[in-house]
Amino acid sequence: MNKKLSEAVALFEEVIMYGTERIIRSFEHQIFEEYSSEQLQMLQIISKSEHISPGKLASLQGVHKSAISNRYKKLETKGLVTTVDSDEDLRGKLIALTDKGHDVVSMFNEVIYEHVEKIVLDDFQETEIDEFLRIFRKLSTILKTEGDRK
Amino acid sequence: MNKKLSEAVALFEEVIMYGTERIIRSFEHQIFEEYSSEQLQMLQIISKSEHISPGKLASLQGVHKSAISNRYKKLETKGLVTTVDSDEDLRGKLIALTDKGHDVVSMFNEVIYEHVEKIVLDDFQETEIDEFLRIFRKLSTILKTEGDRK
Questions:
Q1: ipTM computed for the complex
Q2: What's the predicted TM-score (pTM) here?
Q3: What are the HTH marR-type domain coordinates in residue numbering (chains A, B) (predicted)?
């Protein structure tokens, strides 16, 4: 079992690594010239919640708050993000996407989706996709729930 | 099928995002105070090949070569990476891990592994791990092969 888990971890890392390379390299797409992959990742994370605190964003991207602040400024200059008042957190503002920000995320998701489709339709059966979904729904639920416990 | 694929992509992204947060936050581990997650990711990518060109590294991390050069300098100051002469590529040097670099990667992998083990042993059956391995071996092979085609 230990050996299988080690292999699973290594494979997951490889898929992230080679997947990133493939999507970025083979797509000579405009959005990759305009935005760095870190900026795109940040936009995508914001889009998954309606708005998000800088601290939570730093935690999800695995970087310090100072890095988030720099990235925020760059994205704000490009008109992609803005701040909104927080109902719950009186201390601070929350980060949200602008309409333009939502458009960039949609475009990025389409680029990723087209790539995944190319890979998957050639080499995977629908039953394998179902199995993938089953495993990842479970994984995602576990990780989200654990993340909420402070 | 389209809907399933979209869900698969979204779930994969969520697992990366919440997995990163969980591993970094819940482990008050020394290596996360000493090294940023980007530095750890770079060390890990180098460790997957014996040595690697700065260009390939930039491509795998999805950043510009200038970012790699900055990260390299920081890691070199910490004694974790070094350069070696390339047999194939006369133009440039390749980046390799030092012994200390290998130690940091091993420690990082252990931290990740312990976390995955905790999640998986409670909630997943061995047959699910087997299915995960089967899907990810295939995905990794496809992505690697495509990555080699220039």
A1: 0.77
A2: 0.77
A3: 1-141
